[in-house]
Amino acid sequence: xxxxxxxxxxxxxxxxxxxxxxxxxxxxxxxxxxxxxxxxxxxxxxxxxxxxxxxxxxxxxxxxxxxxxxxxxxxxxxxxxxxxxxxxxxxxxxxxxxxxxxxxxxxxxxxxxxxxxxxxxxxxxxxxxxxxxxxxxxxxxxxxxxxxxxxxxxxxxxxxxxxxxxxxxxxxxxxxxxxxxxxxxxxxxxxxxxxxxxxxxxxxxxxxxxxxxxxxxxxxxxxxxxxxxxxxxxxxxxxxxxxxxxxxxxxxxxxxxxxxxxxxxxxxxxxxxxxxxxxxxxxxxxxxxxxxxxxxxxxxxxxxxxxxxxxxxxxxxxxxxxxxxxxxxxxxxxxxxxxxxxxxxxxxxxxxxxxxxxxxxxxxxxxxxxxxxxxxxxxxxxxxxxxxxxxxxxxxxxxxxxxxxxxxxxxxxxxxxxxxx
Length: 421
Description:
Elements: E1 8-10, E2 14-17, E3 22-27, H1 42-47, H2 54-57, H3 61-74, H4 78-91, H5 95-111, H6 115-122, H7 127-134, E4 147-150, E5 154-158, E6 160-162, E7 165-172, E8 175-181, E9 189-191, H8 192-197, E10 204-212, E11 217-230, E12 233-243, E13 249-252, E14 255-259, E15 262-264, H9 266-269, E16 273-277, E17 282-286, E18 298-300, E19 304-310, E20 315-320, E21 328-329, H10 331-337, E22 343-351, E23 354-370, E24 373-381, E25 395-397, E26 406-410, E27 415-419
Parallel strand pairs: 1-10, 8-15, 9-12, 20-25
Antiparallel strand pairs: 2-22, 3-24, 4-12, 5-17, 6-7, 7-8, 7-11, 9-15, 10-11, 11-12, 13-14, 16-17, 16-26, 18-19, 19-20, 19-23, 21-25, 22-23, 23-24, 26-27
Helix pairs in contact: 3-4, 3-5, 4-5
């Protein structure tokens, strides 16, 4: 996972755990049970992804407008959200509403790749906002005009699954490479070897601004890709990050067990309708077409977030990270579901910059509902929730949920589903 911040993080992790985690996907009758949780305050409801409950907690116009802005993010209507949050920030006297509106407006600008608008809106604000803006003031992104084209409506490309991660062929300025498919990365990233071979110049260098999963710092640079192709998709003048090639090599002592040329992030994935078929080692890429979807279960707010349900009907929010091998739960899940029989465990984590061992908790058996499928987990282990997340997350869905089936991601229509043969 790569986050677009000046403290940009890469959390491409290889786990070695003392217990074996397993997930089985089966067909299940769709749950008709309503969420049984009571959300105690307005802000709890907002952060749990229920802005439609705003009227239950408040009559304040600014709070109701904030909820409307959040509803439009969940519906993928980012331009409407942008207008709402700008108006709130300029007019409200409620500091909490203003501060949270700034947090969400930042994400709205990121999703729409409106780097200049971000700069123009925040540059004259106070010190806190000056710190925020430094995350996005990459010279490569301001005043750049990216263009996206599709050579045909649908295409099929081969994929490689290694160590539980998905790798796909891409073309950078006419040369072929192997990139990690990482839905948790906000931006596409190249190795310095690729940038050198394809003539991509570094426009700016951010010292010690990439935080590895091990906590070590590394430099990251910015650049523009003249032509970036994945199957039938092509982006011209594409902003990207550049990292030292050594950061994309994973070692155990002196043995390199995983290496790749770059990372495809959500900036590409959001513009595609994708069917991932790990079992048959292929990916079907379609030009996205706006459809009337009545039950959306995927939205983006700092990360792609999927709506699940517990078997008792409680609504859950999981971050989908294809740059992670395995699914995990976060502490907030324990508050909602209160699972019994928690056990202690530990795992060895390999990431950029080295490795470390951490203690964790595991749930021996737990199930979730995803549309018409049931995900049955054995030994689901705990993970750390990403920082700077307005929405409170219950866990992360990794590649383990789709290794035996197909995963369908259609960001423009808010669809995330597992398709069984």
